Structures are given as structure tokens and as C-alpha cells.
Amino acid sequence: LESAKERCCEELPSLFPKESYGGGFLILQSWKKSIVWNFTLITKTIKFANVKIEAVSGKVFEHQMIELIQK
């Protein structure tokens, strides 16, 4: 868990530049035939930043930004 949290913190600035983060949540789940740590953080601009990290290898499996408010 600790190495996945560190990896997420290292990757966030490059995956989602210009974003600041508030709270969030973490789920360990089976996703597309892999076990992943699924980090979801809410940004200060009311978006969800989602990063999935493979539990075994520690590699970023998938990431996305979800806008909560449509313009």
C-alpha cells in the first residue's frame, strides 16, 4: 500500500498538471484481469482524478480526469 501511495503522488503532477487536490478514496480491486489500487481524488476545480496502479508491478495501469460540472 505504501509504495502504491508513493507512486500515485509521484505520478499525479505529470498525469494531471495544473491540478490541486483535496480528499479522496482508495479501493483495491480486480480490474481487467489485474489487481489494482484505484485512487480517486477530488480536485480544487471540482473534478475527479482517477489513477489505477497495478498492485504487483506498481505500474500505472490507467488514468483519467472526470469533470463533474459540464460547461
How many DSSP H or I helices?
1
Q: What is the typical, i.e. mean, pLDDT?
A: 93
What's the alpha carbon Rg, rounded to whole Å?
Answer: 12 Å
Fraction of residues in H or I helices:
10-25%
| Largest pleated sheet | 4 strands, antiparallel
Q: What is the total tally of β strands?
A: 4
The strands making up the biggest β-sheet line up spatially as: 1-2-3-4
Tell me the overall shape: globular
Low-confidence stretches: none
Q: In terms of structural class, how would the helical and strand content be classed?
A: alpha+beta
Assembly state: single chain
Determine the strand fraction and express it as a percent band. Answer: over 45%
Order of helices and strands: HEEEE
Summarize this structure as a short list of keywords or feature phrases:
four-stranded antiparallel beta sheet; 1 helix; alpha+beta; 71 residues; single chain
